[in-house]
Please model this.
Amino acid sequence: MVDVHLRYSGNDLHGVTAKVIDMPHLYVEIHPDIRKQFWDAQQWPKHVLVRYTWEEQSEIDVAAGFYVLFGSGLMLSFILAIYVLQSSRDKLARFVRETVAESSLPGEGLAKVE
Model:
């Protein structure tokens, strides 16, 4: 059997490789007459089974593009979150101070004035 492997991208054919291999047992079961005719010296022309496989090679690697896109988005989100936390450090500290002060008072004590 001749195994032909074709590589293409769009309408362009980038490469072809061909090799002679033994027919798989499944193919021998499907085409038993080809085997008999091949080994019969009186039978001409000889029939040869050819298997074509096509492989598409994309110029753009979609998976790598998604990894870069989502990775950069995650990194940007992380940097933005750190920036927001640093810019509101005073407000956050005041909030924590007031919350801890209220929760540490025994009972209903003082009212806050802003």
The longest helix spans residues 62-87. The chain has two domains: 2-56, 60-105. The first strand starts at residue 2 and ends at 9. The radius of gyration is 36 Å.
